[in-house]
Every structure is written in C-alpha cells, then in structure tokens.
Known about the structure:
Layout: H1 2-10, H2 14-21, H3 32-52, H4 54-58, E1 63-66, H5 68-71, E2 80-81, E3 85-90, E4 94-102, H6 116-144, H7 146-163, H8 170-198, H9 204-210, H10 213-227, H11 230-247, H12 255-260, H13 264-276, H14 283-306, H15 319-343, H16 353-377, H17 383-420, H18 427-461, H19 467-484, H20 498-517, H21 537-548, H22 559-569, H23 573-600
Antiparallel strand pairs: 1-4, 2-3, 3-4
Helix pairs in contact: 2-14, 2-22, 3-8, 3-10, 3-11, 6-7, 6-8, 6-19, 7-8, 7-11, 9-23, 10-16, 13-14, 15-18, 15-19, 15-20, 16-18, 17-18, 17-20, 18-19, 21-23, 22-23
Amino acid sequence: MKYGKKQKEKSKPLEISSGAEFKISDINMCGNYVVYLTVTYFFMVLSQTCNLLFMTFADRKPKVEDFCEKKYSDYMSTKICNVSNCWVTTNRSGNVICSTNTYDFIPISYDFDIPMEYVKLGTTIQNIGLMIGAIVAGNIADILGRKKVLLSFTIGLIIFLIVTPFSPSFIVFTIFRFFDMIFTGGKHCVCNPYFMENLPDKHRMWVATVVTYSPNYIILAGIAYLCKNWKILSWVTAGIAVLPLIMIPFLMDTPRWLIKKGKDKKASKAAVCIRKWDEELTPEKEKKIIAVVENAAKEELTKKKKGKNYYFYHLFSNWKLGSYAVVFATSLFSTSFISYGIAYNMDALAGTVYINVIILGAARWSINILAAGLEFSIRSVGRRLLHLVAVGFIAVIMAIIFVIYIFTWPKINTYKAVIKAGGTGEGSILAIIIFTRYASLLAAAMCTELFVLDTVQPAELFPTPIRSTGIAFIQIFNRLGTIVSPLVFIPSKHWPPAPFLLMLITSAADFLLYFFLVPETRGMKLPDNMPGEEDNLCEDRTQSTEYTTDITNVESYDSVSTSTSRQSRKNAKTETETRTGEDEDKSRKSEEGKERWRMENRV
C-alpha cells in the first residue's frame, strides 16, 4: 500500500508532491537565521524592559539623615533645604548642616522640584502611551507588516530616549516619556509574535522560557547601578535600542503572516531567503518551497472569502462567553495592578532598588521555569490549578501584610523616624519590615504566571470567530491596570494599610470569579464555532490543528498536505484509511501544540 501511494505521489504535479514533502513549519530550522533573530529579539526586549521600568529608578527617593529638630530645635524657623542638604542658622556657628540627602541613584526630583504625587501621576500619564502604542502599532503592522513597524518604532524610541534628558521641566519630561512609552508599547505588541512565528516548533518552549522579560530585570539592575543617573540610563537605553535597529533590516517578514494576508509572492520570497541563511538551495528545492507557500496563501484567501464576519458585541451574545471575558479582564487588571504597582513603588519596601529588582527578576524567572516544568511533566497540573494557586497565594500574602499593618503601622512609622534621625529601632518592627519586603516581591513575581495563564486560557475558551476580539478586549484591562498601578501607594500617606487592602480586593475578586466561572481547559479541543452553531467536523478538525500548532494565534498553514490528503481520499479505500491515520496523528499532536503555545507565552 505504501509503495502504491509513493508511485501515485510521483505522478502528481510539483505543487502537490512538494506539499507532501515540505511543510510551512519546515521553513525555520534551528540554524544561523534563528540564532541571529534570537539575538535581535533579546536586545529589543532588553531595551523595552529598561524603558518599562525606567521610572522605578528615575523616581527614587533619597536616604535622609535628619537631626535638625533633635539638635537644633530652637532654630527650626531658620531651616532651609535644597536637594542635597538642610541647614539652620545658629547664633554661634552661623549656617549648620543638620540634614543630608544621599542618593543611590540620581532621580528626576534632583533636577525638577516636584511633589511625589506629581511624579506618580506623570508615570500614570506615561503608561497611557503603552496602550495607545499597542493599538496603533497592531493596526499598522496588520497593514504594512511587522518588520516595517519594528524599524519605525525603534527609530522613534531612540529619538525620544535621547531628547528626554534635555527636558527643561517636568511637564516636558512627561510629554517626552509619553512618546517613549508609545513606541515601547508598539514594539512590545509586535516583536513578540514576530519572534515566535519564526522559531522552529520543537525549540519554541525552551527559547521562550530563557529569552523573556524576567532575566532582563536582573540585567537592568546592573545597568542602572553602573549609570547612577536617570539621564545616563535614558541614553544607555537608546544605545541598546540601536543594536536591533542595525540588525532588523537583515530579517524578513514572517512567511506565516504573509501567507495569512494572502501575499503569496512576498511569502515565498521570504521563505526562500530564510532557508538560504542555513543551506544552499538547489533550483528544484527552491521551486518546491515556492509551490508550498503559494498554495497555502491561496487556500487562506479562499477560506477568508467563505468565512462569516463576527464583531465585538458577539462576545457578549452568550452568557458563558461574556462571563469569561469579565473574569479574564478582572484577572489581567488585578495582575498588572499588583505587579507594576510594586515595581513602580520600590521605595515603599526596605532595601536598595537594585537588589529588589534583581530579586523580582530572579523570582519571576524561577516561577516561569518551575510552572512550565510542572505542567509539562504532571498531567494533573492544569491551567485551573495553577491559576488558583497563584492568585490564592497573592491574596493570602496581601491579607497577611494588611492585617500586620493594621496593628503595627504606628510603630512602623515611629521606627522609620528613629532610623531617619540616626537611632536604632525595635528588632520586631525590623522583622516585620523585612517580611513585608520579601513577601511583596514574591507576590509581584507570582504575577508572571497569571500573565501566562491569562494569555493561554482565553484562547482555549473563546471560539475561533471571536478569539482575537476577546483577547483584544481583555488586554485593554491589562493596560488599564498598568496605567493606574503607580498610584497604588499614594493612599498610604493617609492610611498605610490602604495599598495592601486594594491589592487584596483585586486579587480576591480574581480568585472568586475564576473559581466559580472558569473550567479546566487542559486537554480540551479549541472551539471553532460559536455556541449554537452546527459543527462542521472536517473543518473543525483542520482549523483546530492549524491553530494549536502556532504560538501566536497565526495558523500553521499545513493546508497543502491536507489538500493532498483530500484528493487521495477520493481514489481508493486504502488511501481513506491512510488519511484517517494521518488525521488521528494530527489530533494527537494538537495537545502537544497547546503545550508548546502555553510554554511560549511564559514571559
């Protein structure tokens, strides 16, 4: 039977035989092109990490030693301060320095005399740029292609990073930083799917786990420690962004994206160029690649013409779909609110900002690897268990800190005042402060797992026609959480336990809504039809396989092989059995595709 099948395939046209021998997923191999792409992506992520957490360092508070009132209480009316010192004028000695401000990093307050609340509000305004950038870049990339957007947004980011340190006022600084974040948000939206689409299937899991934002937290802490100044950090970040600017022109737009857009000529050209990085293509092999790519692009155009259009309101046309949207919108808002709320307010925690950022990055990376290993190796560890454990842990930590602060915050404030004046405080209060520091950092690090799960599960629950719409909707709340996160510790000025109460409320809401409304999705077939629609089994099987084998919601486009199998099925009963066996093999690979996608989103 196998011999007969081979003989038939030899007699078919070039396009069909090439479809059986070569797949779209075979374009990328773990060779020179992928190594070059990974290095480029690493520098893009590093520059974006530096910009995302820029205000973590630029908003540093000085370490103050103030003994003015203790030693010169009679002369407090003469007290005058600048950014470095405070002094009083005495009858005997004249001007005497009685307070000193020491900086482990020169912040923007050193150059702009502004209240803390204004800085936090400015950070919030900057983060609005993240949302705008993601929306603008996503739409432009859909029209012009990802490579052009990455190039143009990298240039814009470099320009504004260079000019930001020349800001004459805090208002101008905030405007420049707003544009910095527009370009950062745009690059973040585009570079991640661009990178994942180019990775070989079997290497996506470990590469996506190693090359993420988490380890770059550690690198950023080292860079900031060497810079010691917000202006220098901005220029160094611009210098880092120059590296991908030089490297991106040598990359190609992803063949999968070009196929999805039906651009067969550009897709085949990109596929051939990518393969030439790693091997010398014979004219015959080049024709085979072109045939496969062009066939896939034509099938995609045909599929688009037959498809029915769905819109935003369809997301809430069904109770279950609407509840999923609300749950994951709440979860992403809470996760961003807590994660970036702590990252932007490191001054509220004990220790130096450098060590805290290193701890946060190392903990995030460790959690990424641990959770990936558990889910990959233990079948009973599913999405639901991981989500409930992660958000439950965060809620418990916030509840403990909140209760501790209710009973001890007056003593904590007294302890800080004593230390500020050069004294020694109670050991028990010091222990509470240390516990708050590490517990808060660990809770923020745990958010990395929720970011992953809140990316994977919605795609497993929303049907194919509204999957992109549903994910876009919940990601809006992700950005909203980031926008308001710098303000979370402002209420502590009036009531210190308030920030932890707010984070407890959001995490508890996430836990309860998820517990009652979201089912386990591990091992479930991706829904391809809206609720109430009649399933087309043949299309269902094909679309589910195509979707789950691609990490970034771009279909796999192995449809040439599927088309070949359909033609073979019409010829003989034996070939029908062969086709059935191939479909069963694809179904088995479907779950493996989900696992790969789940690992790749671990950022």
